[in-house]
Amino acid sequence: MQTNQKLYLPPMGCGTWAWGNRLLWGYDESMDDELQAVFNQCVANGVTLFDTGDSYGTGKLNGRSEELLGRFQNEYIGVNKDNICIATKLAAYPWRLTRGSMVSAGKSSARRLGRNIDLVQLHWSTANYAPWQEWALLDGLADLYEQGLVKGVGLSNFGPKRLKKVHQKFTERGVPIATLQVQYSLLSTYPVTELGIKEVCDELGIKLIAYSPLALGILTGKYSSKNSGGNSDKSSFPKGIRSILFRQLLPGARSLLDSLQAVAKSRNKTMSQVAINWCICKGAIPIPGAKNLKQVQQNIGALGWELDSGEVAELDRAAAGTDKKMVQNIFQTK
Fold first, then answer.
1. Edge-to-edge strands, sheet with 49-53
2. Backbone angles phi, psi at 249, to 5 degrees
3. CB of 212 within 8 A of CB of 242?
C-alpha cells in the first residue's frame, strides 16, 4: 500500500542534535521556549527541513528532539507550515537486527512526533563492523516506504561503493533513495574530494545533505581570535568535550579562517554565513544547528545570495591547505 506524497527539500535545513543533548550541547528544559521561537523563525523564512534522530537526547531525554519537533510543529501557525519536512534518523543499534525492528522504530518516532516521519534515514552504516546486520535494517526502511508510513528514504554516512549497492537493491524494490547525508564543510571535504560522493549522488538522483557545515562551531570565527595561535585562553573555547577538539584543530585551521574572514568582510556577511553558503554552492543542503534566535538569524543570512566562482575557488584552496581536518565519523564507509 504505497501512497507516498512528494518530499519537499529546501536549500537549507536545521539540525536538531542539540535539542535534548546535555552532554555535548548543554541542553536544559528551560531552553524549550526559545527553541520553539527558533523553529518558528526557521519555518517563516523557508527553512522547513528539520533533521533529527531517535537517539538525539541524553539519558532519560532520549527522543527529546523528536518530541520537541512534534510539539513545535503542532503549535506553529504561519506561512510554510505545509512545507515542513521532518527527517529522522533511526539508529543502527546492535539490538536492532530485523526489518521489523526498524519498522517498529519508525512507528515509535512517529508517536513522539505526533505524525508520520517525512524522511526516514538509517543513521549510520554498519558495514565497517557488522555488515551482516545492515541489509535487514535497510529492508525495514524500504518497508516503511512501501507501507506509506514515510514520504522518502535516506541514508547517512554511506560512501559511494556502499551507496551504489544499496541503490541497486532499493531500485529492484521500486524504492527511491531521496537523500544521503555526510559530514561536509570547509574543514571536512573528505567525502566529496576524496570519496567522490557528490558525483555518485548526482548520477543516482540523490540529494546530498551536509551535516556539521560549521564544523561544530569552529567555522563561525567565534573561537578564532588571537587565542587560536597557541597560548590559548580557556575562555576562548567552548565548554566540555568540544574544547579538546578545538584545541587540536584551531591552530592548523588559522589560514582557512583568515580566508573565510576575508571573504565574509568583502561580502558584508559573517563567517558562518559564508561557510554555509559555500556548502550550498557545492550543491549540498546544509543543516546547521541553532539553539537560539541569534544563531538561527545568522544561518538564515546564508540564503538569498551566492558566492562567485572565484570566492569558492579561494575557499577551496584554503580548505585543501589546512593542516588538520575534522575527525571523520567512524561509521563513514567507502
1. 13-15, 49-53, 85-90, 119-122, 152-156, 177-183, 207-211, 284-286
2. -95, -35
3. no
- Which residue type is seen at 230? G
- Per-residue pLDDT of 220-261, as tens digits, reads 988 754 443 333 443 476 666 667 677 777 777 888 999 999
User: Quick one: pLDDT at residue 234?
Assistant: 35
Distance CA 107, CA 222 (A): 40
CB 57 within 8 A of CB 65: yes
Alpha-carbon distance of 155 to 153, in angstroms, equals: 7
The string of pLDDT tens digits covering residues 250-275 is: 777 888 999 999 999 999 999 999 99
Average pLDDT over residues 156-183: 96
Q: Is 56 one of the annotated active-site residues of the chain?
A: yes
Q: How far is 190 from 178, CA to CA, in rounded Å?
A: 22
Spatial distance between the Cα atoms of 323 and 308, rounded to a whole number of angstroms = 25
Distance between CA atoms of 16 and 291, rounded to whole angstroms? 8
Rg (C-alpha) for the chain, rounded Å, is: 19
Q: Are 218 and 253 in contact (CB under 8 A)?
A: yes
Q: How big is the chain, counted in residues?
A: 334
Please pick, among 8, 27, 56, 145, the residue that the annotation labels catalytic. 56
86: three-class secondary structure by DSSP: strand
Whether 112 has a pLDDT exceeding 50, the answer reads: yes
Cell of residue 16, nine digits: 536538531
Q: How far apart are the first and last CA of the chain?
A: 34
Q: What global pTM score does this model have?
A: 0.92
Judging by DSSP bridges, how do beta strands 119-122 and 85-90 pair with one another?
parallel
